[in-house]
Amino acid sequence: MRNFIIIILIFGSLASSGQNQKYESKLYHDGHGGFVYFPLGAISFADEVISFTEGNPTAKDIKIREPKIILGEPDYNMETFDNSLTLGCGGTITFHFIDNALVDQIGPDLSVFEIGSGIEPTTLSISKDGISWIDIGEISGGRADIDISPFVNISDIFYYVKLTDLKSSCNNDWPGSDIDAVGAIGSAIQITLSNSVLFEFGKFDLKKEASNEIKNLITQISGIDNYTIEIEGHTDSIGSDAANNLLSLNRANAVKKQFLIEEKIDSSKITVKGYGESVPIVNNSTEENRQKNRRVNIIIIPKSVQRKTYEVETNSIFMPYYKKEGVFKNVYPQAFNEKTFPRVWTTDIDEALTLNNIIYFFKGGMCQAFNKKSNKVEGEPKKINDFFPGLWESGIEAVINWGNGKLYFFKGSEYIRFDTNTNKADTGYPKTMAGNWGSSWFDNGVDCAINWGNGYAYFFKNGEYMKYNVSEDKPLNGYPLTNAAWESLWLNKVDGVFDFAPNEVYFFKNPKKEK
Known about the structure:
Layout: E1 5-11, E2 26-29, E3 35-38, E4 48-53, E5 85-86, E6 92-96, E7 100-103, E8 110-114, E9 122-127, E10 133-139, E11 143-146, E12 157-158, E13 160-165, E14 178-184, E15 187-193, H1 208-220, E16 227-234, H2 241-263, E17 270-274, H3 287-293, E18 295-302, H4 311-314, E19 317-322, E20 327-328, E21 334-335, E22 351-355, E23 358-363, E24 366-371, E25 376-377, E26 382-383, H5 384-387, E27 398-401, E28 406-411, E29 414-419, E30 424-425, E31 431-432, E32 448-451, E33 456-461, E34 464-469, E35 474-475, E36 481-482, E37 496-501, E38 504-509
Parallel strand pairs: 1-18, 16-17
Antiparallel strand pairs: 1-15, 2-3, 4-6, 5-14, 6-13, 7-12, 7-15, 8-11, 8-14, 9-10, 9-13, 16-18, 19-20, 19-21, 19-38, 22-23, 23-24, 24-25, 24-26, 27-28, 28-29, 29-30, 29-31, 32-33, 33-34, 34-35, 34-36, 37-38
Helix pairs in contact: 1-2
């Protein structure tokens, strides 16, 4: 009970300020075309690998068997396939959070970034001390956002996460789950002050050095809006329960007093508790452990923090795909905006079509023509029939350039064939999809489509795609497949797709309607 340390745990988001760039909220690509929001940004991710037991078989490539590569922020490179770890069949890895901790909040608390087209599940466990574990159970592959609330108390704090591959995919070059990063969405910031500067032996008056340390600490965490503070005193097991309880409470009150002096906040926002020796973080069997148990915890809890809104959550987003290399460009998705497509609609685009050097964007009953060479929209949006006479006045859902002077437009269960030479719809259209496209999969329409230029076309609908032989005019056997077969493509839906360059295809997706 002689020396104390101070642990500061900050729950929730910090307001942006020059001093708090380290803790600024941030969105991260999930490797599958979406994003995960982390209120505390870069500090949220695992800092240390405690242990790694490779599964059997292991990955053939040695560069994806180095566990330290997945510490910190997600940085998997979709073009070079670098910066990820393959666990191996049945492999297990244990992470440690050092400058932060995992806590329960409203919604998901932990995110596991798994990359690749495979969906390999793992089991998840969390721990306060790396010894006693709470089994959360099986988590899905791809991207897993986990809510720990059914398994923990709201005040619990965890520093360790363990993942174990469930042996669902073992017969390939990447056996087991492929991990990019592990991060605590529900994250607390931990700052530790030296225990030697706080109190003299057996006393509860702060030393001068401790006052300076607290002043510096408050400067570090400035910028938190509308918060409450809980200060908890703890001791080791030396001495009587009564003496330890009183000393822990007095020392917590001393820290509270200094916070009131330096921070000049309403004292009603601060609560103080003295726990004595009742809540050790390690056993008291050695002097080193007793020093760890002698501590003051300061928990700062922001209230009603405004979540930042990001452009990629409100605008349509797009991802370029390199056809020759078979990968998505690594820095995407990005948002439709004045930088990417000047003056093009930024949201709710139904489909797009590249014809010669013009990209036509469709939205409702309107259409825009974007010139790729000049990087400008040609004039104002016009009615869809001003560009393509004979289409539905209310708009389209999908379009494909068939490559023989014909375009096919789709809406619901109908389609229209359009002749680019005469610039009008062919007679006898619209027709129903049923019975005309070689599979009942087409009967209720498609979300988007593209001619790949190699004799095949691709149609996308509700998280699936159909590969179509253009010359034989029939779909291929074995289809449809799920979008998971495309590295990093959205798993639930693709809203549009168009050619941008000979080797580049742009896929895009609209934000959720509720946003």
